[in-house]
Design goal:
This protein is of the alpha/beta class. It has nine helices and five strands.
Length: 201
């Protein structure tokens, strides 16, 4: 549908009809989606972004084309694949590390990062510890009629402190973050450079 020449016009018409700001519409593109015509794809995407619509890469971590697509398309956000997240209880250190690396990749590119498949409180805590901006899953909310959403927004609260995890998965996430921190001892100015020069010779 994205390659249909009329698609951007349909989107624009719908936005105007309902009086909705374009920036509130997020269109999700599957990481595994294939496009036969890159030029038509890029033209369609450009028209959508010109409207102010935001693009989201869905299921990051499930396919092979994500890095190239992140480089070539103007995404505003990424969603980490729930299939990966659901393996966290089976292999915590490896999967939490993988999720953490994807979060850092997205944040490093200036993108908003959400984690799918948050179906238990410890997964929510781990995602928060790793620095995700948002999440999706039954532990946050189940599908609901639009009429129930305002009430859910008013009453929903998360009691999570990412700096002090209380679950095993949260602790694994915090430990992974510590491992990524490079500790350089304090030294007189220029001393570190001299050590590097000595090591190089």
């Amino acid at each position: 549908m994205l390659l249909d020449a009329d698609y951007p016009r349909w989107i624009d018409d719908a936005l105007q009809k309902h009086g909705m700001a374009p920036g509130r519409l997020h269109l999700e593109i599957l990481e595994s989606a294939e496009f036969d015509d890159d030029k038509r794809r890029d033209a369609a995407v450009q028209m959508l972004t010109d409207l102010g619509v935001r693009l989201v890469m869905d299921d990051l971590g499930s396919g092979y084309s994500s890095l190239l697509r992140l480089r070539t398309l103007p995404f505003h956000a990424v969603k980490i694949d729930q299939g990966l997240v659901r393996e966290a209880h089976k292999d915590p250190r490896r999967i939490i590390g993988f999720i953490g690396a994807l979060v850092r990749l997205g944040k490093g590119l200036g993108l908003t990062v959400a984690v799918e498949g948050l179906e238990t409180p410890d997964l929510i805590e781990a995602a928060a510890v790793l620095g995700a901006d948002g999440g999706q899953g039954y532990a946050l909310a189940k599908p609901m009629p639009a009429s129930e959403l305002p009430d859910w927004v008013r009453h929903f609260r998360l009691s999570i402190d990412p700096s002090s995890p209380r679950t095993p998965l949260g602790a694994v996430a915090a430990d992974w973050l510590r491992e990524q921190t490079v500790f350089i001892p304090q030294s007189p100015s220029g001393d570190l450079a001299r050590r590097c020069d000595a090591a190089a010779t």
